[in-house]
Amino acid sequence: MAKILLAWEMGGGYGHIDTVHQIGAGLRAAGHDIVYALKDLSRASVRAGGREAPVFAAPTALPTSGSDGAARSLSYADVLQRSGYRDPRGLGGLLRGWLWLFDAVAPDLVVCDHAPTAQLASRIAGVRCMAEGTGFCIPPPADPLPTIQPWAQVTAADLGRIDREVLDAVNAAVARFGGAPLDRLADLFDPQADILCTFPELDHYEGRADAEYAGAISSGSDVTDPPWADSPRPRVFAYLSPQYKGFEDAVAGLARAGLPTLLHAGGAAADAVRSRAGPSLRLSPQPVDMDWAMGHADLVVCNGGHGTASDALRAGLPLLILPGHLEQALLTYRLAQQGLAAVVDHRNVAPSMARGVRGLAADAGYRERAQGFAAQYGDHTSAVATAAIVDRCQAVLARPVAGGA
Amino acid sequence: MARILYAWELGGGYGHIDPLFRIAEALAARGHESVFAFRNLVNAAIRAAPDDPILIQAPIFLGGGDMPQRIAVNYSDILLRCGYAEPRGLIGLVDGWLRIFETATPDLMVSDHSPTAQLAARIAGLPSVATGSGFMVPPQADPMPSTQPWTPAPASVLAETDAQALASINAVADHFGATRFGRVAELFDPERDVLTTFPEFDPYEGRGDANWVGPLLPGSGVASVDWPAARGLRVFVYMKGGDPGLPRMLTGLVKAGAGALVHAPGVAPEVVRQFAGSPVRFCDEPVDMTWVTDHADVVVCSGGYGTLSRVLSAGIPVLTVPEQPEQAVCGYRMAQRRLVALVSRQNLEASTEKALTTLTSDPGYRERARAFAEAHGGHTAEQTLDTIARHCESLLGTAP
């Protein structure tokens, strides 16, 4: 039937990999030929096991030195600027990499998961394109693109300036390929084609108008830890990354809370955890089966990744979050606004974590709201979300191709 | 004529891009096509401008899994940090390179700091030439020797890192049905590989036969800067502006009575202010190295090969302040060979003063710099490029 390129360019971890693999499987089942272009081939291979479809390395910008600037991004435009969009020549390099791929693969459709440069390349090449992803990856089509720091004083002038700078770089780069300029940065996206892989409550942007929410896609794993599951309630499932600031204090706080806790800290030096752990804290180094873990927990502690937050709320579990980076901080802010998550104080992690865990375990309000969410989305599964995306892909395939370069 | 794939997988900045572009230019002048599979396409495109080379994203390792916490003890330990600690992940990276070879169909690969591309090339039967410094192109040893010769790890630790890296390499070989490797060093081939440096800069001792083709030297900058007046030596300093040791090192120079001209890109205004009124002058623009070697008594640098080659080729003594592991081990070796005086970061001021005194009071350093100049002073980048181009053509079977 059709040749579909699934592209992932930005962001980390396993969430994007798991999502595009599930979409790829759904598209293959619908009879299409799939090719992947992925940012992280090592993790993708660990996850996917057998080779079911060709995988290329996706052009991606590497962090520049002193890259904690990412924590200061004001909007999606700012994120782009730190991801290769500062210098039109550099952006041209990424575009050239994508266009080489398009030449090699000859896709009928490019499905983009946090892959804005693939979207831009698709415009240049005249190839059908659609984006799927969380709210963060598909900003509302506003001019300028809205703030991703709603708690800070970000002016319209700031946002406008950043949009214009990035738009100028984009158009200078596009011109070198003979492509048509964009009128606004938001035109990178196509609300008729794009589809949000999330729920309104987990949309990083509040109050998005006219959006289609397909619901979240979950990651898989099948490792369980029965001894924890048999311990007295309330039980805590914690999924924290050692790469973020405050990790060791967070672990100390979890131990101090004294409730039976299963901690998954992917890639952690086990020593760092063991030295801080207490009798109630069990470490699982393997990725844990989220469905199983959520099914046996009473509350979830995490860094605010979209996947974990979504899984917890769908299981009716309240959240305690220590955000690791800006995207997670934004989601945490949104969830806290809705009373769906409590937040650990990053200035005083260990005691705040200990208090937070005990407090959340005893708080009926958070539990009721989480259970309300679970009831509302009780019929949702990853398969439902995947099917919605596959349907959208087929609809986009049926449209005429937009003008190319 | 032939299509040549230039591969760059590990490391940062422009130090791998520039040499490969120059080699490609030399081979393109002989009629060959170039495609580039690079780690960082943003930097590559900026460097190539206004040209539009064919750019392909190289598979890159982005972390994950259990990585060793200590500083790398040898080349295999470096590999363990670059994807070789997780065999299934390494399979994914190699598969990505094989995909590139299948699509771009090169006749030859020229690589710079790209062990996984070399592994893939071996599996695919694609002839490949590894280029780079002695650090990037380790010797044919088993196990890989220590990269911290001042406190070498026990042989058992070196053997263990080799064994772990080799197990991953062979998991890849098995997966693709290729011949297994007997040792990590088989990623390299001394007959094919070229060392774009001088033997005096080898961080390893006792390397056997190798193709030493000399360095591709750094570019030029502005000249004719006024030297600050001082009673002692004229010292030219070239270090990163953000190097935290810079102020104390400069203080050491001043205490030794030297006058310093400093090119430290990105240096903070506070540091510049700190030396107002002292015989230290900061120059924002890169300074032409020929002018420097005509006017300086001593050069201080972090030990980049380009600067070292230029300066030693002119017979000027060098003081090095290494700021990363490769510079540290090369600096150590070169200090052992009395080619440079090494500054210790443990006590920068005193160490700088002492090193400067050693350099100037011990005639051995100036003698060895002169010997180096005699051996290599006539060397040009054009010679290196010509040698590499002829070497590649002989591998292609298209030698004139």
Overview of the structural elements:
The complex is a heterodimer of chains A (405) and B (400). Chain A has 405 residues and is of the alpha/beta class. Chain A has 2 domains: 3-216 and 382-397, Glycogen Phosphorylase B (Rossmann fold, 3-Layer(aba) Sandwich); 226-376, Glycogen Phosphorylase B (Rossmann fold), CATH 3.40.50.2000. Chain A is 42% helix and 12% strand. With 400 residues, chain B is α/β, with parallel strands linked by helices. Chain B folds into 2 domains: 3-217 and 380-396, Rossmann fold; 234-376, Glycogen Phosphorylase B (Rossmann fold), CATH 3.40.50.2000. In chain B, the strands form 2 sheets. Chain B has a 7-stranded parallel sheet with strand order 3-2-1-4-5-6-7, sandwiched between helices. The longest helix of chain B is centred in the middle third of the chain and has 21 residues, at 155-175. Chain B starts with a strand and ends with a helix. At the A-B interface, α2, β3 and α4 of A face α2, β3 and α4 of B.
